[in-house]
Amino acid sequence: MRWHDDLKEAVQRELDSRKEGQQTEAPKETIIPDCLNTREAKKYWKRLQKAGYVDEHWQRTKKCSRRISAYIAKKMADVLGITAYWKSFEKLWNIKNLAQEKYKMKEQYNYPKRKDEIDEIFYE
User: Fold this and answer.
1) How many whole angstroms separate alpha carbon 66 and alpha carbon 52?
2) Which helix (H) or strand (E) holds 106?
3) Is 67 in contact with 112 (CB distance < 8 Å)?
4) pLDDT tens for residues 55-113?
5) Which of 36, 45, 46, 115 satisfies CB 3.0 to 4.6 Å to 111 for a cystine?
C-alpha cells in the first residue's frame, strides 16, 4: 500500500473518532513520503531534529512556524533535487498552502529570523 493510502486511512479514522467525540492517540510512527525518506534526507531530518525544528517523528515543533516550515521545505527540496515537493510536506506536517507562504515570504522579502541557522543545516 502506498504512503498516501495509509495517510488517507489515518485521517479518516481521526475524523470518525472526532465525530464520535473520542480522542485518538497520536500515531507512533509518521508515514514519510518516499522522496523525503532517503538516506540523504534522513541526514537533514536528524540535523533539523537536533536544532529543535522537528521531533523524532519529523513533525514540526513549536519552534517551527508556518514561515519556517515553508523555508525548510524549499531548502530540503533544493538540496535533495526534489521538484514536486509542496504536497509531500503539506501532508507530512498537516499544513496547507506552504507554496503560497513561501511565495509571500519571497515577495515581501520577509524571511525567517532563523534563516541563517536553517541554511547551515543544509550545507554539507
Assistant:
1) 15
2) helix 98-107
3) yes
4) 999 999 999 999 899 999 999 999 999 988 888 899 999 988 888 888 888 777 778 88
5) 115
Tell me which amino acid residue 18 is: R
C-alpha cell at 118: 536553517
Joined grid coordinates for residue 123 = 550545507
Question: Looking up cell 470518525, which residue turns up?
Answer: 16
Instruction: Kindly write down the DSSP assignment for every residue of 46-92, as one continuous string.
Output: HHHHHHTSB-TTS-B-TT--HHHHHHHHHHHHHHHT-SS-HHHHHHH
pLDDT at 118 over 90: yes
Pairwise CA distance, residues 44 & 124, whole Å = 10
* Whole-angstrom distance, CA of residue 97 vs CA of residue 108: 17
pLDDT in tens, 25-67: 444 566 788 889 999 999 999 999 999 999 999 999 999 999 8
- Number of DSSP helices (H) and strands (E) in the chain, helices first: 6, 0
Q: Report, in this order, helix, strand and coil percent for the chain, each rounded to 5.
A: 60, 0, 40
